[in-house]
Amino acid sequence: MARNFPVRDADLSKEVVKLRKVKLYALSTCGWCRKTKRFLDANDVDYEYEYVDLLTGNDKVRALAEVEQHNPRKSFPTVVVQNGDTQVVIGYVESRLREVLGL
Amino acid sequence: MSSEEAQALRQRLKSEAEAAGYFLNPDMDFVLDLMEGLLTNEERYGYQACPCRLAEGTREKDLDIICPCDYRDPDLDEYGACYCALYVSEEIALAQKEVEPVPERRGTEPEPVGEEHEEELVGFTRSGMPVWRCKVCGYLCARSQPPLKCPICKADKDRFERFPWP
What we know:
The structure holds two protein chains of two kinds.
Chain A: H1 9-19, E1 21-26, H2 31-42, E2 48-51, H3 57-70, E3 78-83, E4 85-90, H4 94-101
Parallel strand pairs in A: 1-2
Antiparallel strand pairs in A: 1-3, 3-4
Chain B: H1 4-19, E1 23-24, H2 28-45, H3 59-62, H4 72-79, E2 87-88, H5 90-93, H6 115-121, E3 131-134, E4 140-142, E5 160-162
């Protein structure tokens, strides 16, 4: 996105965080998914989430295809961070989440 | 927060685990959340499918991920915890070590081959009894049918396979 007006660095980093898309694919029954969700909440990460086990029909097929695209093994939790490039964290690996989310 | 059923299930699994030399995760809240997951799956599917994996919904397809799953013991050996970290090593149970993330093992190892072929040739003791192996814990027994429940890990009868013997 081209900008034709000056932006201070602090504003820019906020803008970047705003443009970033974070999605958590989880199971409602899974302990590690719950830990991941708590971690994202505790760190004020703006994210969307879906409990794939609670979806039905086309929604479930669509969500599973999305997970598979980033994680062929289709395991949970899968966190997808889209921020120009795409980064994926499979499982609750706190160090990786911190790295990918810039925490 | 957790229901009485979850507390009761935890108590039962804990005593069964300890009687057979296994250990539950010492993090009680984490375990109770997993108990809720197991109970949810039991209600949803009719069996306690692994709460950390997406079940297909038919017992036959999910047999290997009914808790305790076929992958628990190899994951305990390699990582000190099962995939969910419900079952952990003694070190982790005693808080001498932290639980680390366990990668998904399911689907990474080829199915044992030639089982059908072998079954015709082997699988009986000299006295003519077939030998059965619990796919969860490896318990072996020689009897006409596998037991209704594994005496070691309490897995159901359909988790047993014929074991080539001798």
